[in-house]
Amino acid sequence: MSEGDWSGEKLLLQHRGVTLAAGLTAEELRRVEEIHRFHFPPDLRSFLSCVLPIGLRFPNWRTPESSELLNQLAWPFEGIAFDIENNVFWWKPWGARPEALSEAIAVAKAAVDRAPRLIPIYGHRYLPANPEIAGNPVFSVYQTDIIYYGVDLRQYFACEFGRIDHAEAVRGEPRHIPFWTDLVEDNA
Question: Per residue in 61-72, pLDDT tens?
Fold first, then answer.
C-alpha cells in the first residue's frame, strides 16, 4: 500500500459514521504550517490531502486560527501544567522542583517547547511533527497519562476506529520521540 492510498482508512471512518470532507489543498496545508510553525509529517500530509475528517473531536484544519484548534494544540502542555499544580507531578529529568508554582510551570513549559510539537489527530490523540518523516507514533495525551496509541498513523486509525485492538496497534518498536517517548516509558 502506498503512502498516498488511504482508501482503507476512509472506509473505516465512514463505517464509524465520521463525516468526511474533501482533503486539504496544498495552499491550505501550507497556511496551517505557516500559522502554527510546524510541518505535517508526510503520512499525515498525505492523509489530510486525501480526506478531512470533520466533527467534534477532529481538528478543523480549514479554520487554523479557531479557538477550538488553538485549544487542541495547547492541550498537551496544559495537561502537564494541571498535573504539576494539582497532582504533585514533577519529572525527575527537570531537576529539583522550584518552590514557586509559577517557576515550576516555567520549567515544564521550556521542556515542552523544546520537545517535538504534537499535532492533534482526534480528541487527545497526537502525532509528533518531528521527525518530518512518515511513521511517527501516535500518542494518547491526557495530562501526564501519556501512552502510545499506534506505532504509526495507519495503526492508530485501525485501533481508534475498531479494526484492531490497542495491543496490536502498539506492537513493535515505536520510533523514539524525544521527551514524549521518555514520558511514556516513565509511565510504564
Answer: 999 999 999 999
- As given in the structure block, the three cell numbers for residue 127 are 502525532
Long-range contacts of 60-67 (CB under 8 A, 24+ apart): 61/24, 61/28, 61/29, 61/32, 62/21, 62/24, 62/28, 64/31, 64/32, 64/35, 64/36, 65/35
Q: Determine the Cα–Cα distance for residues 119 and 7; give it in Å rounded to an integer.
A: 22
Cis omega before residue 131 (within 30°)? yes
* Gap between the Cα atoms of 75 and 139, Å rounded: 13
The domain segmentation of the chain, as residue ranges, is: 7-187
Question: Helix or strand or coil: residue 146?
Answer: strand
**What is the distance between the alpha carbons of residues 53 and 25, in angstroms, rounded to a whole number?**
14
User: Which segments of the chain have a pLDDT < 70?
Assistant: 1-4, 169
Per DSSP, helices labelled H in the chain are: 7-15, 26-36, 42-50, 67-86, 101-114, 153-160, 166-169, 180-187
Number of residues that this document lists for the chain: 188
Dump pLDDT digits (tens) for 70-99: 999 999 999 999 999 999 899 999 999 999
